[in-house]
UniProtKB/TrEMBL annotation:
InterPro entries: AIDA, Autotransporter_pectin_lyase_C, Hedgehog/Intein_dom, Hint_dom_sf. It comes from the Bacteria. Residues 895-1030 form the Hedgehog/Intein (Hint) domain. This is Hint domain-containing protein.
Length: 1178
């Protein structure tokens, strides 16, 4: 069997298989065999297989080794996902399986692969222990081949951060120094011992910490535990620290027993930990093999442990459905070995492989879903078998598939699966497999979707720049992008195609029904494909591109549509539909019938039959009713073909040259690709649609036209009320436009003096002004850009920023009479004024005058004064460098941390205010990076009052899911958290429950950290961004320090380490996930006491007597103003002594900025959500 996997799909599972997984033949116990990776869906459907290399090669001077596994060895083959999520790692032996089996003991010292020597210089050929690093794109790196480790024994597991170095565990000769945990760089042949303890099992990296499990006969009564190696990843010999209580054995209780060991309740049973999964910092699942080296009955299955702040406690062991047998039996399952999982809201979904007595016993992949908060085994939980190993194979490890984490997430919907409201961003994809269903997906620009044969999708949006390939069925989608129906039997139905959108039936057997083509929408039919019951609205187009392309049912023209014929129809194909609504400005453009074509109309069966003939070739069209029999006319088109229209299509004053003459008016015209419509001076056009490739020349007046993407309008007269997706050009003095909307991808170019643009809304589009021309009363929103290209270009009246707008002044104005003369409003932190003509030595100053704020930027030679509506504080405006050597003016709003925030460093967590330049931080991918600079700023509460761009936001502990942040995290509103693969400014996450923004403070102090490049670090355990200089460095009070430290630093364009999301469905999906993960509290048995309440601090304790291991979330508010939320999880000895659970129920929190006496009097502490409030006395 050859490999069928070329890459992996995010969300799928991967299992490692030894034995005849590649069809190479059967193997006996302990023989060398190939290692096969098998990708499966989470429902058990096989996606494909990948056989790891069986041939040693040299690539660019680097030796890539063959890698084999030992068939029947249950303690190896563990599969791990790298911490950065981009690769899988597994250990093996650096030799071809057949070669080893042929050489056997005579060549390698033992016929059993795992018992081969790894020592060089002996009488036998050494076999290196090899790390296979398998990337998300299918690339396999086996260059790390280690000698002198795990001599005459097996390599068991591998862990890595990002594939540049590895941690490896395994066994050697008991007592020697080739066993234990080792560290090796990628491509190395020797490794460094971290710990040479015996019988190390599985090593994992979790949140930057290295762990290992052990189960050995050595030591007093054996050694079985899980241990860690400090808070930073070790690179040399390091003493491990055993996790408290997961050590050796437990005294079994009835609550902890599995389905086999009830008779051992009250006695001590030994542990045999293998793989493990941290569902949260305080919940750990352990795959126990049930066959401890220390002997005895064991406790095989899936153990759930919880941490109480001092030690770990075994809550219960899940085993129902595993069909466990005693470890004294001759065959069967005794427990579990491989394990992975994921947290989904309040549930933990786990996947595990089984441990067996005999080397060649049947192996399986199981799954089970557990209640994250449960501390006693739920009665309804049972394992389900996902995969049963094929004959002559063993399943060993299991992991989630790797993915390219630098792009948006990929989504796979497997057989029986459902995806609801997925958002696919630029670079991301969704694949709906056979039997899967996607509902309401939003495929954003740059994203892609594939609906496989047998898969289905409904609803949702395919945005401009997005693509969808349909091999199954799709219905009800809004099409703004490109949809390709490319399989026989594939179908789309009940869709609306908008300007710039297209549906292509690209292959024989593809079908479309109920398609509506809106302004600029296109339906193209190629091959023997068919569309039924199609509606063409104003500007819509159907293109029949092949001889067997077919329209059937009905075609309804409902406003200036086009049917374009690109091929002579074969008999029984073409336009078989009955056409209705055909009227003024509707066109059937037959591009293959020549200019000598004749038109013949007859009435048959109450319908009009129009036949176009040219020699022996003819095309026929059927129109509903007989009214058109006398009014259909034939004329030449612009491509040497012919157009069929009605005689009423031509308005008074227009002629065969597509000209609207002076005094004439033409309404609803459609200008198709290759056509030009001219509106003469004195002529008027109303509501025209210029399609891609079409051109509209207006010397007269244009009202309400739509310029589609790819369409062009040249204005020497006046246009108003239009919508621009394409290009609009004004190149004659005196030309003007007003009240137009320019959408994303659309451009308006003013290229000469004397032109005026009034009331233009740049909704993602752009307006550029060259020459002595003016834009008056302009709105910038959602990425809109206004560019002043000449020293006499001006913007006057009002300039409203309505969301992420940019004003560029490419050259300095020639005098104070030009440039930015408008009064600017709505200017916020995501808006930019780019003064490219200013030098880097410029300064910024501001004064208040007449209720406005005048901001002057001066570089010694040139000055520019900007007028902002309202009274702004001086440090609201920030001067920074742009990427072209000029300067930017932005609004203060740089993201920062508040003092007290715990930042993860190489030596552990430290308060942010104690950090210094040069201190090294742990980043998301596990790298250790030094601090380059630390910015500091502070504000008086009187200035910050009412400033949503300054007032701090508190993220309550656990509000981001998975127990994160570990403590309340207080940051500035524009500070972004890394969630679901994207950066989200925290102000976009405020929900007034678990994420709240302060309204009143005494003082706000912020600190931010800069590395060499933008990155993700950990604040209170949560992934959070570092500072990036996007022109905002100048707002820090110590900004000059950076220039002093790095005088030669050149300004560079800001490059974010991940996509930034501030609006849209992708943000809403994240908000929904966080809301679903928000802790909910049953308040029927809550004890809540407040022991201290001052203007700056609240302390007390709270617990739920029915959930002794849970930690209550509390809301602190004054009147209706929510100040913060806090988890009651601190330990107090007096609570424990009083029998209040384990004592971890206290809370003690500082209130940002303090409270007034009135606010203190109205202070309320209550569980979340609303329940039994405790009101404090004044």
């Amino acid at each position: 069997m050859s490999s069928t996997l070329k890459s992996f799909t995010e969300g799928d599972l991967v299992i490692s298989v030894v034995g005849d997984g590649d069809g190479s033949g059967t193997y006996t116990d302990n023989q060398a065999s190939p290692i096969t990776l098998e990708e499966i869906t989470t429902t058990g459907e096989v996606v494909g297989t990948m056989v790891l290399p069986q041939t040693t090669t040299v690539v660019d001077g680097v030796t890539e080794y063959a890698v084999s596994g030992e068939y029947g060895s249950s303690s190896e083959g563990e599969l791990q996902l790298s911490q950065d999520g981009e690769s899988l790692v597994i250990g093996g032996y650096g030799i071809n399986a057949a070669t080893y089996n042929a050489g056997g003991a005579a060549v390698y010292g033992d016929a059993r692969l795992a018992q081969s020597t790894s020592l060089t210089g002996t009488s036998y050929t050494a076999v290196p222990r090899v790390v296979a690093d398998i990337s998300y794109d299918g690339t396999v790196d086996t260059s790390t081949a280690l000698y002198g480790v795990f001599n005459t024994n097996n390599i068991r597991s591998v862990a890595t951060v990002d594939g540049t170095s590895f941690y490896i565990t395994g066994q050697g000769v008991k007592g020697d120094t080739t066993q234990g945990v080792f560290y090796a760089d990628d491509g190395a042949s020797v490794a460094t011992a971290i710990d040479t303890s015996t019988d190390t099992r599985v090593t994992e990296i979790v949140n930057g910490v290295l762990y290992v499990s052990r189960d050995s006969t050595q030591g007093s009564g054996g050694t079985s535990n899980i241990a860690s190696y400090g808070t930073t990843l070790p690179v040399s010999a390091t003493q491990s620290e055993v996790l408290p209580a997961i050590d050796g054995s437990v005294t079994l209780t009835a609550a902890e027993e599995n389905s086999l060991n009830a008779s051992a309740v009250g006695t001590t049973v030994s542990l045999s930990p293998e793989s493990y999964f941290f569902a949260s910092p305080t919940v750990l699942y352990v795959a126990d093999s049930g066959n401890p080296k220390a002997g005895g009955v064991g406790d095989g299955g899936l153990q759930k442990w919880t941490y109480n702040g001092t030690a770990w406690t075994l809550d219960y062991t899940l085993s129902v459905g595993l069909n466990l047998v005693s470890n004294t039996s001759t065959s069967g399952t005794t427990g579990l070995i491989g394990l992975t999982g994921e947290v989904e809201g309040d549930d933990v979904v786990l996947y595990a492989t089984n441990a067996t007595i005999g080397d060649l016993d049947q192996t399986y992949l199981f799954t089970i879903t557990d209640d994250l908060d449960a501390t006693t085994a739920p009665a309804d939980e049972s394992f389900t078998t996902l995969v049963t190993a094929a004959a002559d194979t063993n399943i060993r490890g299991v992991s989630f598939a790797p993915t390219d984490t630098s792009t948006a997430s990929a989504v796979t919907v497997a057989n029986g699966g459902t995806s609801t409201s997925a958002t696919i961003s630029n670079g991301g994809s969704i694949v709906v497999q056979s039997g899967g269903t996607a509902t309401g997906a939003s495929i954003l620009s740059g994203g892609s979707a594939t609906i496989s044969a047998g898969g289905s999708a409904s609803g949702g949006v395919l945005a401009h720049g997005a693509t969808e390939t349909v091999l199954g069925s799709v219905s009800g989608t809004q099409i703004d992008g490109t949809q390709i129906v490319s399989a026989a039997g594939a179908s789309v139905s009940d869709e609306t195609v908008y300007n710039g959108g297209s549906v292509a039936l690209a292959i024989k057997g593809a079908q479309a029904s109920g398609i509506t083509l809106n302004n600029g929408g296109i339906l193209s039919i190629d091959g023997n494909a068919a569309a039924t019951d199609t509606t063409i609205l104003s500007g819509g187009t159907i293109e029949l591109e092949s001889a067997k392309a077919t329209l059937s049912g009905t075609v309804l023209f409902s406003g200036q549509g086009t049917l374009q014929i690109d091929s002579i129809a074969s008999s029984g194909y073409g336009t078989l539909a009955t056409i209705s609504g055909f009227g003024a400005a509707d066109v059937i453009d037959d591009r293959v019938m020549g200019t000598g074509t004749t038109l013949n109309t007859t009435v048959s069966g109450g319908n009009t039959i129009a036949t176009l003939s040219s020699g022996s070739v003819s095309q026929q069209f059927t129109f509903a009713g007989s009214a058109l029999a006398a009014s259909l006319t034939l004329s030449a088109d612009s491509t040497d073909g012919v157009e069929l229209t009605t005689s009423s299509a031509a308005s008074s004053g227009s002629d065969s040259s597509n000209v609207v003459s002076s005094g004439a008016t033409l309404s609803g015209a459609v200008v198709s690709s290759g056509d030009t419509l001219t509106v003469s001076a004195g002529g008027t056009i109303v509501g025209a649609t210029v399609l891609s490739g079409g051109m509209l020349d207006v010397a007269g007046t244009d009202s309400g036209s739509v310029i589609s993407a790819g369409g062009v309008e040249n204005i020497t007269g006046h246009a108003s009320g239009g919508t621009v997706y394409g290009t609009q050009t004004l190149a004659t003095s005196g030309a003007s436009i007003s009240n137009e909307t320019v959408l994303s991808g659309g451009t308006v170019d003013i290229t000469i003096k004397g032109v005026t643009a009034t009331g233009i809304t740049l909704d993602g589009g752009s307006l550029s002004i060259d020459g002595n021309s003016v834009a008056n009363n302009t709105v910038l929103k959602d990425g809109g850009t206004l560019d002043l290209l000449s020293p006499k270009a001006s913007v006057t009246g009002s300039l409203e920023f309505a969301g992420a707008g940019t004003l560029i002044q490419s050259v300095a104005p020639s005098s104070t009479a030009y440039g930015v003369q408008a009064v600017i409003s709505g200017f916020e932190a995501d808006d930019t004024i780019d003064l490219e003509g200013m030098g880097s030595a410029a300064t910024l100053s501001s004064v208040t005058s007449g209720g406005n704020t005048l901001v002057t930027v001066m570089d010694g030679k040139t000055s520019e004064t900007l007028t902002f509506a309202g009274d702004y504080a001086a440090d609201f405006f920030v001067l920074g460098a742009d990427s072209a050597g000029g300067l930017t003016v932005t609004a203060e709003g740089t993201p920062c941390y508040c003092p007290g925030t715990a930042i993860l460093t190489e030596t552990g967590e430290r308060p942010v205010e104690t950090l210094e330049i040069g201190d090294r931080l742990i980043t998301r991918n596990g790298a250790i990076r030094p601090i380059r600079w630390i910015g500091r700023r502070a504000y008086d509460g009187r200035f910050a009052a009412g400033r949503s761009d300054i007032m701090p936001v508190r993220i309550a502990a656990g509000a981001l899911g998975e127990g994160l942040p570990r403590r309340d995290l207080v940051i500035s509103p524009l500070h972004a958290m890394f969630l679901d693969g994207v950066l989200v400014p925290v102000h976009a996450l405020v929900n007034n429950r678990t994420i709240t923004q302060a309204e009143q403070v005494d003082v706000v102090e912020y600190i931010h950290i800069e590395l060499e490049t933008h990155d993700i670090i950990f604040a209170e355990g949560a992934a959070s961004e570092t500072f990036i200089d996007d022109g905002s460095r100048g707002m820090f009070h110590n900004a000059r320090e950076y220039a002093e430290l790095y005088p030669d630093a050149e300004p560079v364009a800001a490059r974010y380490c991940a996509p930034r999301v501030e609006s849209g469905e992708e943000l809403e999906a994240i908000r929904r996930r966080l809301d679903a993960a928000s802790p909910r509290t049953d308040t029927s048995s809550i004890e809540l006491y407040v022991d201290l309440a001052t203007r700056g601090r609240v302390a007390g304790w709270a617990r739920d007597t029915l959930r002794p291991h849970s930690r209550l979330r509390l809301r602190i508010r004054t009147n209706e103003l929510v100040l913060c939320e806090v988890t009651a999880d601190r330990h107090r000895a007096d609570l424990q002594a009083a029998g209040k659970g384990d004592g971890f129920h206290a809370f003690d929190i500082d209130l940002i900025g303090g409270l007034s006496e009135e606010q203190l009097a109205a202070l309320v502490v209550e569980p979340v959500p609303d329940a039994r409030p405790v009101r404090l006395a004044a």
